[in-house]
Amino acid sequence: MAEGMRTACLLIALLSLGACSKPDTAPGPGGVTMGEARALDEAAAMLDERRPPAAALQPSQGVGK
Q1: Radius of gyration of the chain (CA)
Q2: Which residues contact 7 (CB under 8 A, 6 or more apart)?
Q3: DSSP characters for the chain?
Q4: What are the angstrom distances between the C-alpha of 63 and each of 48, 56, 57?
Q5: Which tens digits make up the pLDDT trace of 9-32?
Q6: Could you tell me the pLDDT band of residue 8, with boundaries at 50, 70 and 90?
Q7: More confident position, 65 or 38
Q8: Angstrom distance (rounded) from CA 13 to CA 11
Q9: Are 22 and 30 within 8 A, CB to CB?
Q10: What Å distances lie between residue 62 and 29, 43, 52, 56, 58, CA to CA?
Q11: Are residues 55 and 49 in contact, defined by beta-carbon separation less than 8 angstroms?
């Protein structure tokens, strides 16, 4: 019985948090909408994941000498 009550409370809390979020068309940071800001954040995260390691960006020694 306590497990069911705990699950119900968790579900209510999650639904309440979802209702608090701003719609995609709401004004966001930097003059963009919330949806645009979220898309920019996702694109930045994708680019960070695709970034090569720092060692790959270092020029190799002895090239051209």
Answers
A1: 23
A2: none
A3: -HHHHHHHHHHHHHHHHHHHSPPTTSB-GGG-BHHHHHHHHHHHHHHHHHPPPHHHHSPPTTTT-
A4: 29, 15, 14
A5: 666 766 555 556 678 888 888 889
A6: low
A7: 38
A8: 5
A9: no
A10: 47, 37, 22, 16, 12
A11: no
